[in-house]
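Recall the central idea of this unit: under ordinary conditions, the amino acid sequence of a chain determines the structure it adopts. In this exercise we apply that idea directly, starting from the sequence alone.
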Amino acid sequence: MELERSIVRALRQVFDPEIPVNVYDLGLIYEIKIDSDNKAYIKMTLTAPNCPMADQLLEDVNDAVLDVPGVTDVAIELTFEPPWDKSRMSDEALLELGLL
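Accordingly, the structure predicted from this sequence is:
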């Protein structure tokens, strides 16, 4: 559980290049799992399937999670089901963007 909290903290340091909000509060992270070997599995999406910064964002997420002490490896699954929408954003993200 502590490792998952550390991963969430790390993900909150990764920002979508087009929106000044971190990927976690933006609602792009759908699932975090950690196996018995401390390999992290991240299921995430993008704000749009044709995001021009997709490769960079995935690399940033991978690097941030891999930097968490205790994480041995990272696997990222990119999905578009269900599609992202602003209802997935945290109150902090909505406030930051002036939507709340």
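The longest strand covers residues 29-34.
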